[in-house]
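Project standup — Tuesday

K.O.: blocked on the structure for the chain from last sprint. Re-posting the sequence here as requested.
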Amino acid sequence: MLLLINLIQIAVLGWVVLQALRAQMDVAPGISSDARRIRAARRAEIWQKQVRPIALTMMLLGPGLVWD
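H.V.: unblocked you, prediction finished:
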């Protein structure tokens, strides 16, 4: 179970890093400010509705599964 939680945590971390890289690419001069705003809004929506609840759940579950 602990391995599964760690894998999910790593996947969430990977998603966050990937989105940060994509946000850096959006700064490129060929992209309009409207397109940047739309992409940023979409990333924020995904974070609020999907990734954040999973990340919080995994953060709370992880320490509770440590056995002595």
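K.O.: great, moving the ticket to review. The helical segments are 2-25, 33-64. DSSP finds two helices and no strands in the chain.
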